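Anyone up for a design puzzle?
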């Protein structure tokens, strides 16, 4: 029985990955592919401008981790940790968490194992909290300023209220000692540590780290502005916020789908329908965004493999000298 349960746990992430792929395939099948192809054709080589914008929130996420470690680790090492670790998060189907053990291991070059684990755990929790706050904030903007159908309007209000309450509860949990106690139990059970040393999270550090995460999410909207401009569309603030809200909403409630594949594209397509634009164009924008995700994932992994290759060469040279 235990073996069966463990098998289900191992395969569940793959199931949700294939579910997301199925949603994406269905979207492509039922939409006019010529519109999608045209959007890629219009962007062309300028798609690298879309890729470049991501550097803004990567830096913000790195500043969040730097705040959590009280700047004990050089910033460029944290930036390397962020880019390479997130690369593994994208390609591993384990609910987007496959790169977290790698991040912890890398941070142990400067921090103890319990400090590194605690930092990555807090970063992940604050990342989740920032996502909920961001979703809630953009959703309330849509509720108050975007004309939508009554049924959708009521649904948005319910979601907005639920997310508001949940964000408050999650904030209280992060500031409490419960996450640290849970992490300590896991590490002791895995026999990684005999004694887990927990450091309380100061409210000032928490707020500063949360600020950087939220700033990164706000800057994420610039990606849609750039894509709109490349597609020859005049970007309007309310339209961009609506797309961001639908994307965040889909990602929040279907977080179990690895990297929101299929789900995010569906959310963006739905947002385009809300703002009165072709849903095929929305899917095109979603796929351009997906290309950016894959680019940075491959870029991060390539950097990590290059560093490993370079270190192996240095080790061989040292051995030859000895």
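Challenge accepted. My sequence:
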């Amino acid at each position: 029985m235990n073996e069966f349960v463990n098998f289900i746990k191992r395969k569940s992430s793959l199931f949700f990955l294939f579910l997301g792929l199925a949603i994406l395939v269905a979207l492509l099948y039922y939409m006019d592919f010529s519109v999608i192809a045209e959007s890629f054709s219009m962007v062309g080589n300028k798609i690298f401008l879309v890729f470049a914008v991501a550097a803004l929130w990567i830096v913000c996420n790195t500043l969040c981790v730097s705040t959590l470690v009280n700047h004990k680790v050089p910033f460029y090492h944290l930036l390397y940790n962020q880019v390479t670790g997130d690369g593994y998060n994208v390609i591993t189907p384990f609910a987007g968490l496959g790169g977290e053990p790698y991040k912890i291991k890398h941070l142990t070059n400067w921090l103890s194992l319990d400090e590194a684990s605690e930092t990555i755990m807090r970063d992940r929790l604050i990342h989740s909290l920032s996502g909920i706050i961001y979703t809630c904030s953009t959703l309330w903007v849509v509720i108050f300023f975007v004309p939508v159908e009554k049924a959708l309007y009521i649904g948005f209000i319910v979601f907005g209220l639920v997310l508001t309450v949940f964000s408050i509860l999650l904030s209280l949990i992060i500031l409490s000692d419960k996450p640290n106690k849970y992490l300590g139990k896991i590490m002791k059970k895995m026999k990684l540590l005999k004694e887990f040393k927990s450091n309380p999270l100061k409210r000032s550090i928490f707020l500063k780290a949360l600020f950087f995460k939220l700033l990164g999410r706000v800057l994420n909207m610039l990606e849609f502005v750039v894509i709109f401009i490349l597609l020859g569309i005049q970007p309007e603030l309310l339209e961009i916020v609506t797309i961001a809200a639908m994307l965040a909403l889909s990602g929040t409630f279907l977080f179990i789908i690895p990297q929101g594949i299929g789900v995010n594209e569906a959310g963006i397509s739905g947002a385009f329908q809300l703002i009165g634009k072709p849903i095929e164009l929305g899917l095109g924008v979603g796929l351009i965004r997906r290309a950016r995700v894959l680019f940075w994932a491959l870029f991060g992994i390539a950097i990590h493999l290059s560093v490993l290759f370079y270190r192996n060469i240095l080790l061989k040279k040292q051995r030859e000298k000895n």
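A detail worth pointing out: Residues 2-321 form one domain.
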